[in-house]
Fold:
Amino acid sequence: MRYQITGKQIDIGDALQTHVKTELGEVVDKYAERPTDANVIFSKSGHEHVCEAVVHLSTGLTAQAKAHEPEIYAAFDSCCEKMEKQLRRYKRRLKDHHRERAQPVEHFGASYNILQSTESDSEAEPETLQPMIVAEMETKIPSLSVGEAVMQMEISGSPLLVFQNENKSGVNVVYRRDDGNIGWIDPQNAG
Structure:
């Protein structure tokens, strides 16, 4: 597995890098087969250290975790525990995922735009209903089954996931509802 361990405006020493490779490697190897790379970023937020970890699996799935702690090693250990909990929850499905799927998850490109917030201090009515585009980027949308989409959303810690439904080839959305359940939007099945 390839590791990219970086710090945002903080120095990352060799001892911390070795600790990250050892601990994260053990967790990922225990619960997921064939991880390809891991990206771990350390930063500071006020008095706390922040650790963000993203692990890409060869199947195309991604696991993410983030933690805040006063000490940098504690931040990583807490982040690693969260990653382990997510992967442990889906251990059987992650191990069997590559047996069911002969090829890695396919992705297709889509445009991703960031729109300016309409919230402002003034109560004046906006001049136009057309929102201002702040940034334009490309993103990848995976082609998954609904079960794989729910698993991907949960192991990545995202509140929602847009995906191409393998079975119906339409674009679908799964999301975490306020009541804790998972919602699934399937425009192809609309009455």
Q: What stands out?
A: Residues 14-31 form the longest helix (18 residues). The beta strands are 2-7, 35-45, 48-57, 62-69, 107-115, 133-144, 160-165, 171-176, 182-185.
